[in-house]
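Hi, here's the filled form for the chain we discussed.

Project: internal
Contact: R.S.
Residues: 207
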Amino acid sequence: MAKNSMLDFDLGSRVFPISTASKEAQKLFDLGLNWCFGFNQEEGLACFKAAAALDPQCAMLHWGIAYAAGPFYNMPWCDFGEIEASECTAFCRGHIDKALALSGSATALEMALIEALAQRIQKSHPVSQAEFDRWDDAYADAMRKINEEFPDNLDVMAFFAEAMMTRTPWHLWDVEKGCPTPGADTIEAITVCERAITLADQLGAPQ
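And the returned structure, exactly as it came back:
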């Protein structure tokens, strides 16, 4: 998709202000994030890359690239092949390191999100599944702390819920027993989502 046509899509009016002086980069970031929230990481990644080309010194644009290219609920670490895992860890960790290096002018929330994502992809090479699982746990724990620090931020709630769900993808609920799968953060994720919906309704925020 050509860069100019990316902004033709209307994915809603939700905005996540970041530390960039480029209005187009901000628009592309918002579009990329909304694509990711809609489980279209490929388009989200394309938007973040286009935004980073406009403002390569913006830490959050490199965060966005790593976030979109990394694991998520429909593509957790356990579904990566050896080559995919090798490419993903190297690519994502590279952009996380760029984000960390450029974070001097980042806001407190931006810095926290960058540091949290560094827990999801801790090394630039594949590790054992057990260690990948520990990365997922560490990312969810980091997002839990951010949610406590920024309790009324709807985007943080979305990131936190996704982090919890991706710890145990497709194993959130035991259908036969009618209860959460042991070890899953199902109830906490539901609580966060319900609070986010209630808060969004109160604020009249787009959903």
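Let me know if anything looks off before we file it.
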